[in-house]
UniProtKB/TrEMBL annotation:
Compositional bias annotation for Low complexity: 250-266
Pfam families xrefs: DUF7108 (PF23418), DUF7108_C (PF23420)
All copies of domain DUF7108, residue ranges: 48-137, 142-227
UniProt name for this protein: RnhA operon protein
Region of interest (Disordered), ranges: 1-51, 61-80, 230-266
Compositional bias ranges of the Basic and acidic residues kind: 1-18
Skewed-composition ranges (Acidic residues): 23-40, 230-249
Stored InterPro entries: DUF7108_C, DUF7108_N
Native organism: Halorubrum tropicale
Domain of life: Archaea
Amino acid sequence: MTRTDDDPPEWAKERAREMMAAGDEEAADDPADAAESPDPDDGRVPDVPVEAVEEAERLTRLAREAESAEPTPEIEQAAEQYRERRDALAAEYGYTARVREEDDALVLYPDEWMEDGTVRLDRVEDTDRAVEVSLSGPGDADRYREVAAYNEAVAAAVAEREAAVHARTAETFAAFMSNHYVRTVDDATPEMRAEFREEYLVRNGWPTDEQLDAVDESLSVIASVADGVEVDDAEVADVNDPAGDESDDAGGSADAAGSPDTSDSA
């Protein structure tokens, strides 16, 4: 067969086929190639776990609660410690915590967006990386009143049915769960019970030695009595696990982060 000037010789075609086949085998054997094209789902936005966001919110609320009391050096120190713990937690994930005053929201900004404590708008590439949590969203007051009323009812029931030592602890535990977590006493996690037993009761409950010795028994008594307290189950479920925007806020992105307010406070 006559070969044109544009048609390469057969040996060249064969050599090209061999080189292409060798290249395909190397690509299949080299896992580094896969790393060069990462799965877009591998990246997490935002980069802060929901549990860390919830803890940052809790510490922010504790700082506020401390500052709402009559100012003393001890109160001011406690509030500052809460903020320091919150900021250290955010820093573990490369974030900076700020409270946006105009809509009362806790916002966690990626550190690279910040300069001298101020958000630099020119550094914001993906607003979804910010995290926003409302500190006084609609319905908060209603939920608090419902939870507090239920917890007080449980404490009153303990006072009616059990020994005085358990009644005093029940009253303190009811206030702790209402004010710190806005959750019912029978919805307390083991971590919350430990915090109450080891920190809150000792520092804020003015417990007697008898109370401290019986605190574990008292918590069991409270849980047992709570089982018999009549309450609207649906209403309490909504309070302990509110549906709607609140659950999304805890781990969601900040829609308003597209135009962050540089006047955020700590």
